[in-house]
Amino acid sequence: xxxxxxxxxxxxxxxxxxxxxxxxxxxxxxxxxxxxxxxxxxxxxxxxxxxxxxxxxxxxxxxxxxxxxxxxxxxxxxxxxxxxxxxxxxxxxxxxxxxxxxxxxxxxxxxxxxxxxxxxxxxxxxxxxxxxxxxxxxxxxxxxxxxxxxxxxxxxxxxxxxxxxxxxxxxxxxxxxxxxxxxxxxxxxxxxxxxxxxxxxxxxxxxxxxxxxxxxxxxxxxxxxxxxxxxxxxxxxxxxxxxxxxxxxxxxxxxxxxxxxxxxxxxxxxxxxxxxxxxxxxxxxxxxxxxxxxxxxxxxxxxxxxxxxxxxxxxxxxxxxxxxxxxxxxxxxxxxxxxxxxxxxxxxxxxxxxxxxxxxxxxxxxxxxxxxxxxxxxxxxxxxxxxxxxxxxxxxxxxxxxxxxxxxxxxxxxxxxxxxxxxxxxxxxxxxxxxxxxxxxxxxxxxxxxxxxxxxxxxxxxxxxxxxxxxxxxxxxxxxxxxxxxxxxxxxxxxxxxxxxxxxxxxxxxxxxxxxxxxxxxxxxxxxxxxxxxxxxxxxxxxxxxxxxxxxxxxxxxxxxxxxxxxxxxxxxxxxxxxxxxxxxxxxxxxxxxxxxxxxxxxxxxxxxxxxxxxxxxxxxxxxxxxxxxxxxxxxxxxxxxxxxxxxxxxxxxxxxxxx
Length: 660
Known about the structure:
eight-stranded mixed beta sheet; single chain; alpha+beta; six-stranded mixed beta sheet
């Protein structure tokens, strides 16, 4: 920080519109702002007892210089401010980290045979645009549903001009194939109008028209056309069921809701130990997209360094960065009352700059845009819904921020090059050397990724009762699985277990491919039960405080691996016991038992099989099938969910030998 604080002189700055850039000691831009009067706006930062927010106090303490860029109007200043924020991404500005453009449907009505396509840009070309969709997968699912109901062409203009035979969509009834068929343009454009009515939210009007046509076709004995219309009505109704009607009128609007964190906590400042700096817990935001009275989608944001006092700035930042020339801008945007009613900042118009923001959005839309708070019961409910989604965004992103901070501390404690995002944890379980299993659980960003869980069986180690050998055998199997490799491999065990894995990786020629650590209880007495964490080549354990977030997280990983591995080992043991039990049934034997398990998989499936299913097996007849069915009915179910996934007894209760 610059030891010479910035001294503000009002006469150094003009009383005209423009943009100001606040810079730190190293010349880095800390904040970009705009004002109708630069002198008045900048003076407000350096007055005593101004009631600044914690973020503004921290900003002012770091200012070393202020540069200004003059503009002819305040609107030009607003546009320049938005451009500079996107370019420099200053630390103390609100920045939308995910400011990509979202997917829209485009219906090009100027084409001879229009088609429905995806786009991320709105152009003033006479096309109709619908959306936005924040999820490409959701947009594609909707597109497919529309394609099933309305058989518009799917191919490009080039393919349309050069195709000599219809594509697969025509064969499955999802395209009229204007490329090769003589499709009357009036008939095709009627289909286009139906698609436009459906996407515009006029589904009730569309359904009533289709039902009238269906009844008319039926009365005229044109049952083939009536059946097609009936199927179309069903398809439209099914698609509409997935859209929630939130307003009685078919209007387009966006709803911006905010939610703040539970409070702030003090943080020691630099230099003076008595100086405290308030650290906001964050501010969440959610934009609901309502199209033709139906809730289409939403988008969430989170800023860890803002609090309720920054609500107006947050809303202005979203309006300036989220909506662009290529975006779809609705005619009305609902804003939180706290932001709309916030007093204007010095150097701004008396309305807080909302009229200027509306004019800027109107230029983007090419038509008027109204910014206002909610009015009426329905709009207030929508704002409440947006605030609930913002609170959820705050909670989810807040957990992510907390995990990132904890992960950074964990990386420092374990001497990792970077914070571990993907952590794999392994554990060994067996019963006296029988049914050896090594379980590997995966956590990414602090959450379990169960699709990547793996349970490794080692029949060649039957009777070995050697945890070190089991872990050494696991290593080549894991390496053969390939990436993604973990940022940290955590082993349930002590120094011996971690050394076994380290040696196996060296023998495989992959030493140092990913970091290793192990976690183990230090003793069995009541006074010596704290878990300890070891690193390769280090005699003493890592210094992690008991009850710290880092240690608790590692314990959670270890417990997840233990439960997964032990549950898999128990299921394998039960399956082995049942196979032996089936093979010991009178008149069954090993070959018949193998045939039964190969065909049915489980004893429960065998018990449910009919006599005809059993009699159809090779070497079976109705007599043997009846005898085997009677014998199987006396066996228990092989897969007990309560045993497999419920409360799993500890190793002593289960009689399981596992790594300590």
